[in-house]
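Handout, tutorial session.
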Amino acid sequence: MTAPAPASAADRTDGPDRLPPARFALGPHTWKEIAHLLLNLPVALLGFTYVFTVVLVSGVLTLTVIGLPLLAVCLLGARQLGKLERLRSRALLGVRVEEPTPLPIARGGGPMQRLWLALKDPVGWRTLLYDFIRLPWGILTFALVLASLFVLWPVLPFITRGLANVDRAMVRGLLSPSDELERRIAELESDRGIVVDTAAADLRRIERDLHDGAQARLVNLAMGLGLAKEKLREGRADEHVAAMVAEAHGEVKLALQELRDLARGIHPAVLTDRGLDAALSSVASRCTVPVKVTADLPARPAPAIEGIAYFTVSELLQNLSKHSQARSASVEVWRSDDRLLIQVRDDGRGGATLEGGSGMRGLAERLGAVDGLFVVDSPAGGPTVVTAELPWRDRKE
């Protein structure tokens, strides 16, 4: 039995950079290239119309409040046109180009920041440029291929291959993903906005707690002591004055406790002095559900990472106390290579999601701002397992 002959180049599966050579006979690859080149004209007309409309309408409306938002939406639409062109090129030209990274506008930030990110999107602008220059090229390729079908049939495969290679170069040059640096800059700008918004929210919370809590108590204390002082000056040191002083003493203790709680919310002393294990054990002891804490850390991470880990667990345990109806829970913290991993489990009713409230979503945004991950696995009926991952950075002594 003779061995089968080796596959020829024409029989191999084509890839993005390797195609069978053009031959006088019209093979399947040539017919695909012909179809692509003939479709260039109608596709280019649609793309050019879109670009012309975007530039004209957005340019006119730039003087109004809707001009820039409309341009941002059009750039997002250009991304979708680029996606369709990549699909067409993949099917007919064998060009396999990676899809660009989605814009990080869904990860947080204010409306103005999301608008700015969309307006600076290099993928959208390159797609508009691609659609703008395609109209003359689409007319040329349509005319050449159509004429060659009737006049230059013998050399049609070679003409088709040359024109298709120009198309391949355009797709790779203008519709390929953004440079990694561009993508990273966009992510960092989005993360910076999240960090700024989070810091502002924390400052507002601290101000609110001081104004409504300790400050109000201290004001009442000052008024009470002032009245007691006046009565003592008048020589009326009776049981009423003693009660006022006792009440003021109680207010002092409550104000001190509120200030301690506020300081713990900013940065607990136990975390600074004794590290993450002791701090997590402390916060677990205040949880309404019994919590077992296990920490396997060979060293202490950088203070910023340590603080984020602490407040992540603290927020999760607060949510657990309020909503989970759990009977027990556990917190595990360990290091794996260059990552700090946290896992919080409970046997409650489940059903927790990132969309269920601002707390979970806020935690995901905070971790995302430092290249972390936040995953919630909480089927209805439980159990709930929340996994958080942070980059490990060594502590500088």
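The second record follows below. Compare its token runs with those of the first.
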Amino acid sequence: MAYEIVSLLRMLVDRDGSDLHITEGVPPIGRVHGHLQFFGDNPCTAEDTERLMKSIASVDNQQELQEVGGADFGFAFEDVARFRVSIFKQRGYVGLVLRLIPRKILTFEEIGLPNTLKEVITQPRGMILVTGPTGSGKSTSLATMIDYINIHYDQHIVTIEDPIEYYHSHKKSIIMQREVGVDVPSFSEALRRVLRQDPDVILVGEMRDLETIEAAVTAAETGHLVFGTLHTTGAVRTIDRLVDAFPTNQQEQIRTQLSGNLKAVISQALIPRKSGFGRVAAFEIMITTPAIQNLIRENKSYRITSSIQTGHKYGMNLLDEHLLALLRKGVCKYEDLISKAQMADEFENQARALGLLGDLPGGGAPGHAQRAG
């Protein structure tokens, strides 16, 4: 029996999954509560993957796939959910990955973001970065923060996304959402134009190149609040990544600009719950105090970790501290937590010193899909 995209997406939604993988040679696979499950018994053929791709991709998306080997777009599934879709070629065959985007925008409390960030994200100007690997929940956190501003403040919010994931409605603010490849050709082009559109708040879906980073920093400097994302983990790596994007002769200048404009770095990871149902977010939060401003300006980012450790009164914490708290509370398994730790050896030593490694739960080797029951 041939696979149909509607039934596969329905299965993913019903099982509270996050991603659907379709590739030649294996059955469709869903990521459910962080683990992979087969959504059938029969391997997909090349004809299956092509047919499933064509059932959701526009002619333009299909043409882009043929020309450059891949395309990304948003896709609405009935009235149930939206999906961020990536279609691509691998070994000459078509592959698809569909990421479920929940319709409901979560609150600070539901995500676990600390209330201290509400003050940070309502400053009149500056840059706030949300970082982490793909699939760590950055888009969800950004949607929550934008929604908080939208509900409580009269601002003009402009988002630049690739593709648009969460749809926002006008509340106390007005909000314009521009999609790269549909409404504007690139992030950098959108940022060049946005300053003429009277924005108060600008969200840059991905700061992926020097031109975009430069434009975002300039927007923050000229009196706008800018949210952006990077695929880095931790505040130190994030700052180093931004500086290293610039030629050597411009790095001192960008350090000075960042020291004055960077307000916070929120780095996050998603970890499966020990119960097997759902995932929990862990955060590293750096608030830019005068001491951290000096460290950025003086090229001493390696000392920022110590400032975060001693900055709890400002609402700061390291990612590993949050991971250790989840272990102490019994929310997640040790092996899932240590895989996300910044300093794994130190994390293990602290867990051992606290007596938290005495009864490690068993489990199969990660990375293998299991038959869905």
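Points raised in discussion: The longest strand covers residues 262-272.
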